[in-house]
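hey m, so remember when u said the tokens were messed up on ur end? i reran from scratch. heres the input so u can diff it against urs
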Amino acid sequence: MMYQAFLLTISLLMVFQTSCINTSPLDSVKTIEQARAPKVSLSRLDELRNRAKFIGRSCKEVKDRYGQVEDGLYYLTTSTGVVYQTFCDCHRDSDMTTAGGGWTLVASVHEDNIYGKCMNGDRWTSQQGNNANWPQGEGNWANRNTFGTVEGATDDDFKNPGYYDIEADDMSVWHVPNKTPFYHWNLAAIMRYHTERRFLHLYGGNLYYLFHRYPVEYNVGKHLSDNGPSIPIVYDLGDKESTKMFYGPNTRGETEGGFISFRAINHERAATAICSGVKPKGGEVDAYCIGGGGFFPQGNPLQCGDFTSFAWNGYGTNVGWSASKQMLESAVLLFYR
């Protein structure tokens, strides 16, 4: 009896200890990463398959024409008849949604290896090394190459035909922890925001045309004077100050929160593509902007890569110029509407 009582006491202590462990958002993310796909009935599978019958060039068209209000995977058709699958953020009437719905996922920027400097996987900069003779690198910000899968958009880089085919007015951006399945993207995101200025209408309707006007390449101009536009944003999750905290302490004095900025150039004349959530006020943009051309001179090749200098002072340390681990280990999802 004494031995049984001893075992019972130990068991209760273990339960108590487990229940008292402090959990963090990252613990929740790990749970989400490991979550299995939801079980579905045959009728549900038939419903999902029938989405292929919808005709539209964007999620907004599908939402408006067919009354779809459920987030998920849908099929779209380009102006030339190319059919592709993407994620639609359709329903926007609660705190879990954004500005009326109808947002189309067109791309994701994912850092597969911050130590792999412009190597295989750095599709938004260069996969052939840090090379001044290849100033545009892959050039994927301004071409019709496509890659990746929608379901793998937080596991790898992703770009679909909607990137260059959809004629949009605004953008939405989500930062979602790596390896999160698409049905948890909204819940798992560390930051979500959108624009409301119809700014893409001024630049050809999408990023493909915007980056033709503002090429992302080395030596195209100098910092501040030759940067692209900075557009005010509306937060769906987060705010100006929390955005700046995701980046390194040294960046906070040269950024202004509450914007999305394009084609920002650093002190060494290397171009980055998107500064998510901030407007540059200095020339160290490689520490808080993603993507870029094919050459970053400083510390060759230490800056080169899709997340450039995000680990300049250590991996995920949030010290000096280094971004937080949450930012470094999240994919940046780009939507149009």
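this time it looks ok to me. Confidence is low (pLDDT under 50) at residues 1-29, 93-97. if urs says something different then somethings off w ur setup not the seq
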